[in-house]
Design a protein that fits this description.
The chain is mainly alpha-helical and about 90 residues long. Helices cover about 75% and strands about 0% of the residues.
Amino acid sequence: MTTVILEKHALYDNVVTSLTIQNPDLKQKIKAAYDFRAKFVRKCLAEIGFRGKDLSVRTSMYVTYAANESLVNSKMSMKQRIAHAACDVLSAKE
């Protein structure tokens, strides 16, 4: 998540996703990118020991959080945003 925040990899996710309402071709490309991102995140979380429903939920949480983090936490410092992301996504309890 640190790289996503620092490098602003998901900064425009919401804008691009909103454009898919009018453009079905773009929607397919965005879905492919989302699926690629989710597959990568799922693999990383599985490598550190998450399994089953916990793995699925955390994967979804992480990808969704990354896409919305810049909007939700825009007033926080970069250090706070990184700490908040790690706490919310990786240490969440069921």
